[in-house]
Amino acid sequence: AQSVSQHNHHVILSEAASLELGCNYSYGGTVNLFWYVQYPGQHLQLLLKYFSGDPLVKGIKGFEAEFIKSKFSFNLRKPSVQWSDTAEYFCAVKSTGGGNKLTFGTGTQLKVEL
Amino acid sequence: DTGVSQDPRHKITKRGQNVTFRCDPISEHNRLYWYRQTLGQGPEFLTYFQNEAQLEKSRLLSDRFSAERPKGSFSTLEIQRTEQGDSAMYLCASSLKGTSGNTIYFGEGSWLTVV
User: Fold this and answer.
1) Cβ of residue A90 closer than 8 Å to a chain B Cβ
2) Distance (Å) from the alpha carbon of B80 to chain A's nearest alpha carbon
3) Angle at A52 between CA B45 and CA A58, to 5 degrees
């Protein structure tokens, strides 16, 4: 069974600081990887996704993530965060070998202070 | 708004009562999913439909839970004889097979509180 670990449960940063949120998955086969964001009071929104090709993927709002297959990791990064990035961030994995369910991590609550 | 819509957004019910949630997916999306999310956790997969066929069910979906998608469009999730442990956010999502790697779009969720 696949699983996802997000090691940082709560992160507090000042505006303009750089962000990196860790995500590791456990699955032996080929996967698709996602980062979703949930702003306060809103629904889950897709930030970015990796299916194949260039392991560095760029998403909306200046976010990017790098897939490192050897480390089973898909860390989310942003060079300079803004107050409006305050939200909960979820990493998710979907196997490509059949089935369509997403397996989510427990999420990272990011708070950006002015 | 052409996103995934869910109804009701909030439901408070007494233990033992039945509740039903409705989900309207994005138009033309043939795949529909139900997830459950509790505080401090990520969403957990419950079940998914392709058109009207229920193709996968999680072990989390006990006998008290039933989901339907009779015409391949909207879906309902019914919980019978609710228990306090059923209190959670129930999320619906949809996707279109064969496009953009089947990117899954989520609704705003239905909050259930069992008292």
Assistant:
1) yes
2) 24
3) 85
User: Is residue B101's pLDDT more than 70?
Assistant: no
Contact B3 A43 (CB under 8 A): yes
Structure tokens, B62: 């006990």
- Can you tell me the distance from the alpha carbon of B58 to that of B48, in angstroms, rounded to the nearest whole number? 9
* Other Cβ atoms closer than 10 A to A45: 15
Residue A29 pLDDT > 90 = no
If you average pLDDT over every residue of chain B, what do you get? Answer: 92
Residue A98: predicted pLDDT: 59
For the CA atoms of A101, A103, A106, A110, the dihedral, rounded to the nearest 10 degrees, stands at -80
Q: Check whether A10 has a pLDDT greater than 90.
A: yes
Cβ pair A42:B44 closer than 8 A: no
Q: How far apart are the first and last CA of chain B?
A: 33
Q: Are A99 and B56 in contact (CB under 8 A)?
A: yes
Q: Which of A59-68, A101-110, B1-10, B22-31 has the lowest mean pLDDT?
A: B1-10
Q: How many beta carbons lie within 10 A of that of residue B18, not counting itself?
A: 11
Report CA-CA distances (Å) from A113 to A8, A72, A107: 17, 31, 19
